Amino acid sequence: MIFVLLFSALVIGYWLAKYPIHLKRRPQRSPSSAYLERYYESMHLLLAEQPDAAIDAFMATLDVNAETLEAHMALGVMFNKRGEIDRAIRVHQNILAHPHLSTRQILQARLALAEDYLLAGLFDRAEVLYTELSQCCEVPVAQQALIKLVDVYQQEGEWQQAINTLTVLCEHSQALQVPTNNCQQSYLGQGYDTSCRITQWRQWQVYFYCEWAQVCLLEGHEQQAQAVLAKASVIEGDITRVQILQSQLASMGNNPKQALALLQQIVLTSSLYHAVVLPLWLEAFYCIEPEGNPNRHLADIYQQQPSALLLPATAKAIAQQSGESQAITFLVSALARWEILATVHEALALLPTTAYAQITLPSILAIIEKRLAQAQGYECRVCGYQGHEHHWQCPSCKSWGAVVAKL
What we know:
By secondary structure, the protein is mainly alpha-helical. It has helices at 2-18, 31-47, 51-61, 69-81, 85-96, 103-119, 123-133, 139-156, 159-171, 173-176, 182-188, 198-218, 222-233, 240-252, 256-269, 274-288, 295-304, 311-322, 324-334, 342-349, 361-375, and strands spanning 378-380, 386-387, 403-405. The chain folds into four domains: 2-170, Alpha Horseshoe (Serine Threonine Protein Phosphatase 5, Tetratricopeptide repeat); 245-292; 295-367, no CATH class; 377-407, no CATH class. The protein is built from 21 helices and three strands. A three-stranded antiparallel β-sheet has the order 2-1-3. Strand 1 (378-380) and strand 2 form a beta hairpin. Helix 12 packs antiparallel against helix 13.
């Protein structure tokens, strides 16, 4: 309400500046006084808590033209920020109902209206508008519409269409690399250095293929899932999720060795996904060796990709080869590098080495494993979102592949 009042004051100031009223003489009735009468009427409606009627009066008072367009657009932005999407739609539809606007102003209003539809969940309407705008001759507008189309298809779960739209963006990257000036920033809201985003778009395609493959698996179409993942695997970039899904397909096809090999490749490449992959690795290992001991293999992984999650298995492997005291000595030095285990390290460091033989490894590992379980969490590297579950797409900023374990 305060923002609306402030906005109203700005409009009043605009009209008083354009059509000043002289207090020393009674003003004759003129077009400007008629405008003011309608404006006062809208203020009365607003103060009487009749916002819908007030909006109608505002829009009737302040005709849409080149000089007032910015005020109308600001009103639409205000309603969007307040979550009053239906009112924002009315404002932008009113703008488009006026024929005397330039092509750029029309594009500006159509982009705003499409955004309204997207925020309101009217995906069909948003898709139609963005599709039309993606074919216009204004390159920055076309790019913005294509990017928004990707957003629409994501929310609808139309992964193939999202992939195709990203392909168009990448193929036309040279044409879309236009200098960003203040005018473009004012009505599109951002710059358009496409070269820095092509890599991101390619990575999005990988995740869209994975989402598509996941749907295929849920519907029992394993061959189609395999074909989709094959397309994803040839795109340059992080294909961790592709390999995880391929290992899942291998397990479903009674090929645990292939599943284990794929998962082994992941854990040896990066420790960022150990929290997600290690449980799958153990499952595949026990499918091959139901009575086997994975500790030695996990210790080998630790040597190449250290992870706090691998400390218990590594300590157990050392104990089997050299005794518990050597395993405890290893833990004392290894715990120092993991902040979440600092308190455990400090407690052990206070003990003399001669005391290691008097404490049991299982008791220490129980403390470490409990602390790891308590501290287990995930964080988005883009926006800082934190949670206790892993997401391939950040629930907060919607970035793909940015959520990793905090260990």
